[in-house]
Design a protein that fits this description.
Elements (H helix, E strand, L loop, with lengths): L1 E6 L3 H12 L3 E6 L2 H10 L4 E5 L1 E2 L2 E2 L14 E6 L4 H10 L3 E4 L4 H9 L4 H18 L1 E2 L2 E2 L3 H13 L6 E4 L6 H10 L8 E5 L8 H6 E2 L11 E2 L1 H4 L4 E5 L6 H13 L1 E3 L6 E3 L3 E6 L3 H6 L5 H7 L2 E4 L10 H16 L4 E2 L1 H7 L7 H15 L4 E2 L21 E2 L4 E2 L8 E3 L8 E3 L6 H15 L4 H8 L3 H23 L1
Parallel strand pairs: 1-2, 1-3, 3-6, 6-7, 10-17, 10-18, 11-14, 14-17, 19-20
Antiparallel strand pairs: 4-5, 8-9, 12-13, 15-16, 21-22, 23-24
Helix pairs in contact: 13-15, 17-18
């Protein structure tokens, strides 16, 4: 049977906890001091240690000072004096989770159901690292370059904990694959992994989709609906494009993260949220806070363990590996094998990939379809120019058909072509904000592709919904600026 050790000097709390753990088919032993705990561990290595921080002879985290003592045990903190800083410190030292007194029975049951020896998790990570040199991939991620090695190391460290993760990076860099890999290497792997694109759900429906609703909660709510928090119970909820979530809903999300409880829309009954939340954004996070797109307190609650995804242009040595991977995937689906020429792979490494890995996958698919023979050459692949070389200089100051443009307050941006540049591009003066750069780049790209929104979104590596949201924001900004100028 799985063995648990309770380290707590609160007699009443221990008695209740011991009964609850025993009911989950665990054998249980109890220690009231750090000295007792060390003795119990020496006599019988527990599978899980439920550790109080405040003990008569010291702080519970002193057990971590001897790494071998709890190396083969999952440590869960139990405290009545919880703070985010204390929890983060303990999780970084190796604790798998923490519970706050008075202990919620369902949360305890969830923790016990996920007990897994740290050695088992470490063995899986070691195997992935050992195979990386041969296979070129780590979990769902592909690449051998140094930037990706750093990502793999971060995933290895955080996957086995309950720490909140915030993944930041340009669209198309693989943020969802990172979240999925973290889940697959975690103790929650047997439960659901649900991905939610916050920018693809109507602001009027997103609260209902996240938290669920009761029958009759609003017009059209003809039956009870389980939200993502309920459907992901025990597992991982990935909130992509979090900065597109309405601010009023961010307040409610913060409350759930702090209390572990939520209510469906139209209900007065609270439900437990046994979910690990991983968030992601393609916006620079501090810029998103300054622009009023992300609550600062929510950022710090979620950004416990940040992971910054590198753009594909910063790891061009991975392009041939990724391209071959995508080509094999497409061939398996289409039923006909094809291969790249050496020249084609070399050409792929000269392109700057503004749409990142997503754009590369689309380029490979297009080249596969266009290749008549079994060999995919460079004819249908992007060149180093990154765009049509026939394009001439054009202003990105206005997009008249949409009624939007670069605001007067933003530095002017324009397409330029020169001997030093690799093709049509935009230039922005130093001192421009990230928001201004993003806006100018999106509008210039839209103009370059003759207002073809699907193609623009694909090149930028963002969803069509996100593009529409950005254009709507820019139209509103310009309207406000025009009103202000008239006043």
């Amino acid at each position: 049977m799985t063995h648990a050790l309770i380290v707590d000097d609160d007699i009443d709390s221990v008695a209740t906890l011991q009964e609850l753990i025993a009911s989950e088919k665990f054998t249980v032993s109890v220690a009231h001091t750090l000295r007792d705990a060390r003795r119990h561990i020496a006599l019988q290595q527990p599978d899980v240690v439920l550790l109080d921080l405040q003990l008569p002879d010291g702080n519970g985290m002193e057990l971590f000072q001897d790494p071998q003592l709890v190396a083969n045990s999952e440590v869960v903190l139990i405290t009545g004096h919880a703070s985010l800083d204390t929890s983060i410190q303990a999780l970084r030292l190796g604790a798998a989770d923490y519970l706050v007194k008075p202990i919620n029975i369902k949360q305890l049951q969830g923790v016990l159901s996920r007990v897994m020896k740290p050695a088992a998790l470490q063995a899986e990570v070691s195997e992935l690292n050992a195979n990386l040199a041969n296979t070129g991939h780590f979990g769902l991620l592909w690449g051998r370059t140094q930037p990706m090695q750093r990502i793999y190391e971060q995933i290895s460290r955080v996957a086995g904990t309950s720490v909140s993760v915030f993944i930041n990076g340009e669209s198309g860099t693989g943020k969802e694959l990172v979240a999925q890999t973290v889940h697959d290497l975690s103790r929650r792997r047997k439960k659901p992994f649900l991905a939610v694109n916050c920018g693809a759900i109507s602001p009027n429906l997103i609260e209902s989709e996240i938290f669920g609703h009761e029958k009759g909660a609003f017009t059209g709510a003809d039956k009870q609906h389980e939200g993502f928090f309920e459907r992901a119970s025990g597992g991982t909820l990935f909130l992509d494009e979090l900065t597109e979530m309405p601010m009023e809903l961010q307040v409610k999300l913060l409350r759930v993260l702090e209390t572990g409880r939520f209510m469906r829309v139209g209900s007065t009954t609270t439900l437990d949220a046994d979910v690990r939340v991983i968030a992601a954004s393609n916006r620079p996070l501090l810029q998103a806070v300054q622009a009023g797109k992300l609550r600062e307190d929510l950022l710090y609650r979620l950004n416990v363990f940040p992971i910054e995804m590198p753009p594909l242009r910063d790891r061009l040595d991975d392009v041939p590996l990724l391209a071959d991977h995508f080509l094999r995937q497409i061939a398996a689906k289409e039923g006909k094998n094809k291969r790249f020429t050496a020249k084609a792979l070399a050409q792929l490494q000269t392109y700057h990939w503004p749409g990142n890995v997503r754009e590369l996958r689309n380029a490979v698919q297009r080249a596969y379809v266009m290749a008549v023979a079994d060999v995919v050459d460079e004819q249908w692949l992007p060149k180093g120019e990154g765009a049509d070389p026939q394009s001439t200089a054009a202003s990105a100051a206005a997009v008249t058909s949409l009624g939007v443009g670069v605001p007067a307050a933003a530095p002017a941006a324009a397409f330029v072509t020169s001997a030093e540049s690799s093709g049509p591009s935009i230039t922005m003066p130093l001192g421009s904000s990230m928001a201004q750069v993003e806006k100018a780049f999106i509008l210039a790209t839209l103009q370059h592709y003759k207002h073809h929104k699907e193609q623009t979104a694909a090149v930028l590596g963002i969803s069509l919904k996100t593009l529409y949201n950005r254009l709507k924001e820019y139209a509103a900004e310009d309207a406000a600026a025009a009103d202000k100028a008239e006043q």
